[in-house]
């Protein structure tokens, strides 16, 4: 099954939410100011795929977890962000609730 | 901040859980039988990083969502798998509960 690469849409979504330009985000993760805008635009258009180190830096700058960029639907992406803000204890509690009762 | 690439540990974890060898998984995602074991071993050792198409194929074979491979802690990884089994309605319900009450 050939599926879409979720990175472009997630990256654009998180960048817009963080109200930062492609150029500024590129500079913050270490790109040269002269090429930052074009390189980030390539990532958002899906022409190039960022490597994992660049993705980790973008995740940190945008306040999302690394796995957010790979969520294939919007609700899973939103849940990934909510889970990222939880403590280890809260995550374990949620796991046990979901195993017992599902989402009810 | 330099962080570990989570793919190797997640891949090995999901493959062991699915009780499949490196070679068999490699063949299932389209590798040549003669190189499948070595190539999969490189991925699990972190010497090479699979591209997103290979990761999507592995996710499908192992019954995990693509974002599972990028979860940086075990509890987030387990939650990603649980969320992947939910319907869209269940995910939306969980989002609204977490926004209202947190993990309680």
TrEMBL record, chains A, B:
Pfam families: HTH_3 (PF01381). Residues 11-69 form the HTH cro/C1-type domain. GO terms for molecular function: DNA binding. InterPro entries: Cro/C1-type_HTH, Lambda_DNA-bd_dom_sf. SMART domains: HTH_XRE (SM00530). This is Helix-turn-helix transcriptional regulator. It comes from Moritella marina ATCC 15381. The lineage of its organism: Bacteria, Pseudomonadati, Pseudomonadota, Gammaproteobacteria, Alteromonadales.
């Amino acid at each position: 099954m050939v599926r879409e690469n979720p990175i472009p849409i997630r990256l654009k979504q998180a960048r817009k939410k963080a109200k930062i330009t492609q150029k500024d985000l590129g500079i913050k993760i270490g790109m040269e100011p002269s090429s930052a805008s074009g390189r980030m635009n390539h990532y958002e258009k899906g022409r190039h795929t960022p490597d994992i180190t660049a993705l980790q830096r973008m995740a940190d700058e945008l306040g999302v977890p690394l796995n957010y960029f790979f969520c294939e639907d919007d609700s899973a992406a939103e849940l990934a962000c909510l889970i990222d803000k939880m403590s280890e204890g809260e995550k374990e509690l949620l796991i046990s609730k979901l195993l017992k009762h599902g989402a009810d």
